[in-house]
């Protein structure tokens, strides 16, 4: 594992390495100011000066935030002044902080001035008389970079506080507000606050203390509420499923024994991540489920969330696509940030093949695809990715390459015992009790042999059987063997109906060739 650097260490390193423009994509400006100050502190010996420009106030004092007397409200003019050494002062290291300037950044005069600053820095010899140590730091809640200066920019990620830092923040707030913390809840509180920014943690702790003077388990709801709100406000992800606190979903999903068993181990690691990491175990990254439509892929999202004991968020890549340059990439970045802030969580990407199928074509998709894969590989936050796909024949091969996902599982049409299992689950659910003494599920499974039914087909036959039983001329009764046998005789499977369809054939073919594990021992 590489060395984990704090954001101020990273920033200091980039300034020392003479990167001309650094971009910090964050909304908590106070926290970023502290990072900049800490990073710049390293240059105290040779002297440094920080100047700031904000979209709303123009040129202001970095420390006091008061407008400068010789105020400048036009960013292009401001940068021009820097370029002509008017704002340099006596110090050798000049740090120019530009806040929330994403609109002005699109202006040709502005990005040209930034290009000029970068060019001059690149050419400076760094000797007396030719000293040009100007670093521009853009701090913005949005990440929209004009193509023209993309290559000149280095992005610094401000990661949310680590568990020990969260604990420190909680203690500081409690002390400052004269409140208490229930030490026995500390571990749980820290885990729940994981992913939130320092600003959000402070806000929540203050609210908790204002309620009853103590931060304890009762405040977990406050934290989850904050996370839920963040998901909703983003408008980018959907809160798909929140587990009720028990591992019940396996009663709803049949014929997934291999997958469920595999997830048991991963869930244990996920729930004890810090401990597992200390034992040299990697954090579970995620799985891809590929397979036939209607065979329980979506259902398995709930099963994973139940096992891992955390909510499932749904990402719809189509919804992220924006009409402005850079908007789609920014939306993807933001939605990943939202997922990390909501962590621990499951991030479900449905129909990933539709989302990224264009990766070989469109430039935007290629960039999004690259960004997503890099994030998958480097992510530290406990976000377990569950990607589901039907037709992988269009998916770029990088996706199904080993190493991206921890494992690729194949979901085929159910067979033998698997069919009996799914019938039993749905009959039990609809009738509210176990009808194994009255219905021979194994016999039904044999009757389905060769019929190519999907789980959804079986669920729909049981639904019809319940309706038939309810409407019986002698009055409502329970589902009977005969109802189901009749339905098996008269129902054509949804796959059979498509058997001659070319894209269906391609899908089946790609699925057969895929190097993957079956979700069930029956398949
Ligand atoms: P699609 O790719 O078309 O979205 P899917 O594979 O995600 O399909 P689901 O939406 O999970 O399929 O399944 C549809 C319905 O079929 C489920 O709500 C459930 O009622 C039933 N079903 C499918 N597979 C199973 C299964 N293995 N066990 C129990 N029910 C199942």
Rg, please?
29 Å
**C-alpha termini separation:** 38 Å
Oligomer description? single chain
| Strand count | 15
Characterize the main sheet: 7 strands, mixed
* Mean pLDDT reading: 87
Strand content: 5-15%
Tally of helical runs:
21
Global morphology = elongated
Structural class: alpha/beta
Low-confidence stretches: none
Bound molecules: adenosine-5'-triphosphate
- Main sheet: strand order: 9-11-12-13-10-14-15
Helicity level, as a percent range? 40-55%
Give a written overview of the molecule.
The protein has 523 residues and is an alpha/beta fold. Helices cover 45% and strands 14% of the residues. Strands 9-11-12-13-10-14-15 form a 7-stranded mixed β-sheet, sandwiched between helices. Strand 4 (93-99), helix 4 and strand 5 (133-140) form a beta-alpha-beta unit. The longest helix is centred in the N-terminal third of the chain and has 16 residues, at 108-123. The chain is elongated, with a radius of gyration of 29 Å. Adenosine-5'-triphosphate (ATP) binds next to helix 11, helix 17 and helix 19.
